[in-house]
Protein backbone atom coordinates (compact mmCIF):
# COMPACT_ATOMS: atom_id res chain seq x y z
CA UNK A 1 0.00 0.00 0.00
CA UNK A 2 2.82 2.37 0.86
CA UNK A 3 4.44 1.68 -2.52
CA UNK A 4 1.17 2.56 -4.26
CA UNK A 5 0.72 5.81 -2.30
CA UNK A 6 4.35 6.90 -2.59
CA UNK A 7 4.12 8.21 -6.19
CA UNK A 8 0.84 9.99 -5.33
CA UNK A 9 2.43 11.67 -2.30
CA UNK A 10 5.41 12.73 -4.42
CA UNK A 11 3.08 14.31 -6.98
CA UNK A 12 1.23 16.19 -4.23
CA UNK A 13 4.51 17.49 -2.83
CA UNK A 14 5.70 18.49 -6.29
CA UNK A 15 2.47 20.32 -7.06
CA UNK A 16 2.37 22.21 -3.77
CA UNK A 17 5.99 23.26 -4.23
CA UNK A 18 5.22 24.33 -7.79
CA UNK A 19 2.29 26.53 -6.79
CA UNK A 20 4.27 28.13 -3.99
CA UNK A 21 7.01 29.08 -6.45
CA UNK A 22 4.46 30.29 -9.03
CA UNK A 23 2.79 32.55 -6.45
CA UNK A 24 6.05 34.51 -5.94
CA UNK A 25 5.08 35.61 -2.40
CA UNK A 26 8.22 37.76 -2.09
CA UNK A 27 6.74 40.12 -4.69
CA UNK A 28 3.50 40.78 -2.78
CA UNK A 29 4.86 43.99 -1.18
CA UNK A 30 4.29 45.59 -4.60
CA UNK A 31 0.52 45.19 -4.10
CA UNK A 32 0.20 45.32 -0.31
CA UNK A 33 2.16 48.57 0.20
CA UNK A 34 0.08 50.81 -2.13
CA UNK A 35 -3.22 49.58 -0.67
CA UNK A 36 -1.96 50.35 2.84
CA UNK A 37 -0.76 53.77 1.70
CA UNK A 38 -4.05 54.68 0.04
CA UNK A 39 -5.98 53.53 3.12
CA UNK A 40 -3.70 55.39 5.55
CA UNK A 41 -3.98 58.59 3.51
CA UNK A 42 -7.76 58.28 3.54
CA UNK A 43 -7.70 57.75 7.31
CA UNK A 44 -5.58 60.88 7.76
CA UNK A 45 -8.20 62.77 5.75
CA UNK A 46 -11.06 61.56 7.93
CA UNK A 47 -12.40 58.64 5.90
CA UNK A 48 -11.74 54.92 6.40
CA UNK A 49 -13.70 51.75 5.61
CA UNK A 50 -12.25 48.46 7.00
CA UNK A 51 -14.14 46.44 4.37
CA UNK A 52 -12.49 48.43 1.60
CA UNK A 53 -9.04 47.79 3.05
CA UNK A 54 -9.70 44.05 3.36
CA UNK A 55 -11.23 43.57 -0.08
CA UNK A 56 -8.70 45.84 -1.81
CA UNK A 57 -5.82 43.83 -0.33
CA UNK A 58 -7.35 40.50 -1.38
CA UNK A 59 -8.21 41.70 -4.89
CA UNK A 60 -4.79 43.29 -5.40
CA UNK A 61 -2.97 40.13 -4.35
CA UNK A 62 -5.21 37.99 -6.56
CA UNK A 63 -4.56 40.31 -9.50
CA UNK A 64 -0.81 40.11 -8.99
CA UNK A 65 -1.00 36.33 -8.69
CA UNK A 66 -2.91 36.06 -11.95
CA UNK A 67 -0.42 38.38 -13.62
CA UNK A 68 2.45 36.23 -12.36
CA UNK A 69 0.88 33.09 -13.82
CA UNK A 70 0.27 34.75 -17.19
CA UNK A 71 3.79 36.18 -17.29
CA UNK A 72 5.29 32.77 -16.58
CA UNK A 73 3.36 31.26 -19.49
CA UNK A 74 4.38 33.87 -22.05
CA UNK A 75 7.99 34.21 -20.85
CA UNK A 76 8.30 30.43 -21.21
CA UNK A 77 6.78 30.47 -24.70
CA UNK A 78 9.02 33.32 -25.85
CA UNK A 79 12.17 31.70 -24.44
CA UNK A 80 12.87 34.36 -21.81
CA UNK A 81 12.63 31.67 -19.14
CA UNK A 82 15.10 28.94 -20.01
CA UNK A 83 17.90 26.85 -18.55
CA UNK A 84 20.21 29.89 -18.61
CA UNK A 85 17.93 31.91 -16.33
CA UNK A 86 19.84 33.85 -13.65
CA UNK A 87 16.89 34.43 -11.34
CA UNK A 88 14.72 32.24 -9.16
CA UNK A 89 13.44 28.88 -10.35
CA UNK A 90 10.40 29.01 -12.63
CA UNK A 91 7.75 26.30 -12.59
CA UNK A 92 7.47 25.69 -16.33
CA UNK A 93 11.18 25.43 -17.11
CA UNK A 94 11.66 23.14 -14.11
CA UNK A 95 8.63 21.00 -14.98
CA UNK A 96 6.90 21.56 -11.64
CA UNK A 97 3.71 22.74 -13.35
CA UNK A 98 2.35 22.76 -16.90
CA UNK A 99 0.96 25.60 -19.01
CA UNK A 100 -2.48 24.06 -18.53
CA UNK A 101 -2.04 24.26 -14.74
CA UNK A 102 -1.07 27.94 -14.88
CA UNK A 103 -3.90 28.80 -17.30
CA UNK A 104 -6.45 27.28 -14.94
CA UNK A 105 -4.79 29.02 -12.01
CA UNK A 106 -4.86 32.40 -13.77
CA UNK A 107 -8.51 32.03 -14.75
CA UNK A 108 -9.45 31.05 -11.21
CA UNK A 109 -7.66 33.88 -9.37
CA UNK A 110 -8.62 36.58 -11.87
CA UNK A 111 -12.27 35.47 -11.87
CA UNK A 112 -12.25 35.50 -8.07
CA UNK A 113 -10.68 38.98 -8.10
CA UNK A 114 -13.36 40.18 -10.52
CA UNK A 115 -16.25 38.81 -8.44
CA UNK A 116 -14.90 40.22 -5.18
CA UNK A 117 -14.12 43.44 -7.01
CA UNK A 118 -17.81 43.86 -7.81
CA UNK A 119 -18.34 44.69 -4.15
CA UNK A 120 -15.74 47.44 -4.50
CA UNK A 121 -17.50 48.61 -7.68
CA UNK A 122 -20.75 48.82 -5.70
CA UNK A 123 -18.91 51.00 -3.18
CA UNK A 124 -16.88 53.14 -5.58
CA UNK A 125 -18.82 53.12 -8.85
CA UNK A 126 -17.81 52.93 -12.50
CA UNK A 127 -14.35 54.44 -11.92
CA UNK A 128 -13.38 51.42 -9.82
CA UNK A 129 -14.85 49.12 -12.47
CA UNK A 130 -12.68 50.81 -15.10
CA UNK A 131 -9.55 50.44 -12.95
CA UNK A 132 -10.32 46.78 -12.28
CA UNK A 133 -11.02 45.85 -15.90
CA UNK A 134 -7.92 47.76 -17.05
CA UNK A 135 -5.83 45.92 -14.48
CA UNK A 136 -7.03 42.54 -15.76
CA UNK A 137 -6.37 43.55 -19.37
CA UNK A 138 -2.85 44.80 -18.65
CA UNK A 139 -2.10 41.69 -16.57
CA UNK A 140 -2.40 39.87 -19.90
CA UNK A 141 -0.96 42.60 -22.14
CA UNK A 142 2.17 42.87 -20.00
CA UNK A 143 3.69 39.79 -21.66
CA UNK A 144 0.89 38.57 -23.95
CA UNK A 145 -0.82 39.75 -27.12
CA UNK A 146 0.65 41.24 -30.30
CA UNK A 147 2.43 44.05 -28.43
CA UNK A 148 3.73 42.67 -25.10
CA UNK A 149 4.62 45.69 -22.97
CA UNK A 150 7.38 43.97 -21.03
CA UNK A 151 9.11 43.15 -24.33
CA UNK A 152 8.84 46.73 -25.64
CA UNK A 153 10.57 48.57 -22.77
CA UNK A 154 7.19 49.60 -21.31
CA UNK A 155 7.17 47.30 -18.29
CA UNK A 156 8.51 49.96 -15.92
CA UNK A 157 5.85 52.49 -16.94
CA UNK A 158 3.13 49.87 -16.53
CA UNK A 159 4.35 49.01 -13.02
CA UNK A 160 4.42 52.67 -11.96
CA UNK A 161 0.93 53.20 -13.32
CA UNK A 162 -0.80 50.13 -11.86
CA UNK A 163 1.30 49.24 -8.80
CA UNK A 164 1.64 52.88 -7.85
CA UNK A 165 -0.74 55.56 -9.12
CA UNK A 166 -3.83 53.40 -9.78
CA UNK A 167 -3.41 51.29 -6.64
CA UNK A 168 -2.93 54.17 -4.20
CA UNK A 169 -5.37 56.60 -5.84
CA UNK A 170 -7.97 53.88 -6.42
CA UNK A 171 -7.80 52.74 -2.80
CA UNK A 172 -8.03 56.33 -1.56
CA UNK A 173 -11.05 56.92 -3.82
CA UNK A 174 -12.82 53.85 -2.43
CA UNK A 175 -12.49 55.23 1.09
CA UNK A 176 -13.05 58.90 0.33
CA UNK A 177 -15.08 59.01 -2.93
CA UNK A 178 -12.64 61.48 -4.46
CA UNK A 179 -9.09 61.72 -5.79
CA UNK A 180 -6.34 63.94 -4.40
CA UNK A 181 -2.94 65.30 -5.38
CA UNK A 182 -1.41 63.66 -2.31
CA UNK A 183 -2.71 60.25 -3.42
CA UNK A 184 -1.17 60.78 -6.85
CA UNK A 185 2.22 61.76 -5.40
CA UNK A 186 2.28 58.95 -2.84
CA UNK A 187 1.26 56.62 -5.66
CA UNK A 188 4.26 57.75 -7.68
CA UNK A 189 6.54 56.98 -4.72
CA UNK A 190 5.10 53.46 -4.40
CA UNK A 191 5.30 53.03 -8.17
CA UNK A 192 8.95 54.07 -8.33
CA UNK A 193 9.90 51.61 -5.60
CA UNK A 194 7.88 48.83 -7.26
CA UNK A 195 9.50 49.70 -10.59
CA UNK A 196 12.89 49.28 -8.92
CA UNK A 197 12.01 45.66 -8.16
CA UNK A 198 11.47 45.14 -11.88
CA UNK A 199 14.60 47.18 -12.58
CA UNK A 200 16.85 44.90 -10.54
CA UNK A 201 15.29 41.87 -12.23
CA UNK A 202 15.82 43.32 -15.71
CA UNK A 203 19.33 44.61 -14.97
CA UNK A 204 20.33 41.14 -13.85
CA UNK A 205 18.76 39.63 -16.98
CA UNK A 206 20.26 41.99 -19.58
CA UNK A 207 22.43 39.28 -21.23
CA UNK A 208 19.68 36.63 -21.33
CA UNK A 209 16.96 39.08 -22.40
CA UNK A 210 19.16 40.35 -25.23
CA UNK A 211 19.70 36.78 -26.43
CA UNK A 212 15.94 36.18 -26.86
CA UNK A 213 15.05 39.65 -28.18
CA UNK A 214 13.30 40.89 -25.04
CA UNK A 215 13.72 44.68 -25.00
CA UNK A 216 13.57 46.18 -21.52
CA UNK A 217 14.37 49.68 -20.33
CA UNK A 218 17.33 48.25 -18.42
CA UNK A 219 18.65 46.69 -21.61
CA UNK A 220 18.34 50.00 -23.48
CA UNK A 221 20.13 51.87 -20.68
CA UNK A 222 22.78 49.18 -20.34
CA UNK A 223 24.50 47.76 -17.28
CA UNK A 224 26.00 51.18 -16.52
CA UNK A 225 22.86 53.26 -17.06
CA UNK A 226 20.19 51.02 -15.48
CA UNK A 227 21.56 51.42 -11.91
CA UNK A 228 21.19 55.20 -12.25
CA UNK A 229 17.50 54.81 -13.13
CA UNK A 230 17.15 52.73 -9.95
CA UNK A 231 18.94 55.43 -7.95
CA UNK A 232 16.87 58.24 -9.43
CA UNK A 233 13.56 56.53 -8.74
CA UNK A 234 14.60 55.78 -5.19
CA UNK A 235 15.60 59.40 -4.57
CA UNK A 236 12.26 60.61 -5.95
CA UNK A 237 10.40 58.24 -3.62
CA UNK A 238 12.24 59.65 -0.60
CA UNK A 239 11.43 63.23 -1.59
CA UNK A 240 7.71 62.50 -1.11
CA UNK A 241 7.76 62.44 2.73
CA UNK A 242 9.38 65.89 2.67
CA UNK A 243 6.68 67.11 0.27
CA UNK A 244 3.98 65.85 2.64
CA UNK A 245 5.66 67.48 5.64
CA UNK A 246 6.00 70.80 3.83
CA UNK A 247 2.32 70.68 2.89
CA UNK A 248 0.77 70.45 6.32
CA UNK A 249 1.30 66.88 7.44
CA UNK A 250 3.01 66.28 10.79
CA UNK A 251 6.61 65.22 11.31
CA UNK A 252 5.39 61.63 11.54
CA UNK A 253 5.28 61.45 7.73
CA UNK A 254 9.10 61.49 7.76
CA UNK A 255 9.14 57.98 9.28
CA UNK A 256 10.12 56.37 5.91
CA UNK A 257 13.62 57.78 6.45
CA UNK A 258 14.14 55.00 8.99
CA UNK A 259 14.40 52.73 5.95
CA UNK A 260 17.03 54.93 4.29
CA UNK A 261 20.03 52.81 5.43
CA UNK A 262 18.52 49.86 3.55
CA UNK A 263 17.99 52.13 0.55
CA UNK A 264 21.66 53.11 0.57
CA UNK A 265 22.63 49.43 0.76
CA UNK A 266 20.47 48.67 -2.26
CA UNK A 267 21.98 51.57 -4.23
CA UNK A 268 25.49 50.35 -3.45
CA UNK A 269 24.66 46.83 -4.60
CA UNK A 270 22.89 47.79 -7.84
CA UNK A 271 25.98 49.79 -8.84
CA UNK A 272 28.56 47.16 -7.95
CA UNK A 273 26.98 43.75 -8.60
CA UNK A 274 25.93 41.90 -11.74
CA UNK A 275 24.10 38.74 -12.75
CA UNK A 276 23.15 36.32 -9.98
CA UNK A 277 24.82 38.59 -7.45
CA UNK A 278 21.76 40.85 -7.79
CA UNK A 279 19.29 38.23 -6.54
CA UNK A 280 19.72 39.33 -2.88
CA UNK A 281 19.36 42.96 -4.02
CA UNK A 282 16.05 42.06 -5.64
CA UNK A 283 14.79 40.67 -2.33
CA UNK A 284 16.08 43.71 -0.41
CA UNK A 285 14.32 46.07 -2.83
CA UNK A 286 11.01 44.29 -2.17
CA UNK A 287 11.64 44.56 1.59
CA UNK A 288 12.45 48.26 1.15
CA UNK A 289 9.11 48.88 -0.58
CA UNK A 290 7.22 47.08 2.19
CA UNK A 291 9.14 48.87 4.95
CA UNK A 292 8.73 52.26 3.28
CA UNK A 293 5.02 51.61 2.78
CA UNK A 294 4.47 50.55 6.39
CA UNK A 295 6.40 53.49 7.83
CA UNK A 296 4.68 56.01 5.57
CA UNK A 297 1.29 54.50 6.42
CA UNK A 298 2.02 54.74 10.16
CA UNK A 299 3.15 58.33 9.67
CA UNK A 300 -0.06 59.22 7.86
CA UNK A 301 -2.22 57.58 10.51
CA UNK A 302 -0.51 59.48 13.33
CA UNK A 303 -0.33 62.78 11.49
Describe this structure in words.
The protein is mainly α and 303 residues long. The protein is 75% helix and 0% strand. It has eleven helices and no strands. Helix 6 runs antiparallel to helix 7, helix 7 (181-204) packs antiparallel against helix 11 and helix 8 crosses helix 9 (217-246). The longest helix has 30 residues, at 217-246.
Question: How are the secondary structure elements laid out?
Answer:
Blueprint: H1 2-23, H2 29-44, H3 50-78, H4 99-124, H5 126-141, H6 155-176, H7 181-204, H8 206-212, H9 217-246, H10 260-272, H11 279-301
Termini separation: 64 Å
Strand content: under 5%
Biggest sheet layout: none
What's the mean pLDDT score? 91
Rg computed from alpha carbons, rounded to a whole number of angstroms? 20 Å
Shape: globular
Secondary-structure element pattern, one letter each: HHHHHHHHHHH
Secondary structure tally, helices:
11
Low-confidence stretches: 7-15
Strand segment count? 0
The percent range for helix content is: over 70%
**Sheet/helix structural class:** mainly alpha
How would you concisely characterize the structure shown here?
75% of the residues lie in helices and 0% in strands. By secondary structure, the protein is mostly helical.
Summary tags:
single chain; about 300 residues; mainly alpha; 11 helices
Amino acid sequence: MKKILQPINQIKTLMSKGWLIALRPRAYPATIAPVLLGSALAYSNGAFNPLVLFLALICAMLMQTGSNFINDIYDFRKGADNENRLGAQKVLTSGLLTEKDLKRGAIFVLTTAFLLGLILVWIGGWIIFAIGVSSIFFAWAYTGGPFPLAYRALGDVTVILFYGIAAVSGTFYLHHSKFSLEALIIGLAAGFLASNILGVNNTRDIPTDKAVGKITLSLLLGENGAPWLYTGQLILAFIVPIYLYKNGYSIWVLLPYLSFPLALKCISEIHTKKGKELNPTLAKTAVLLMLYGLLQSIGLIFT
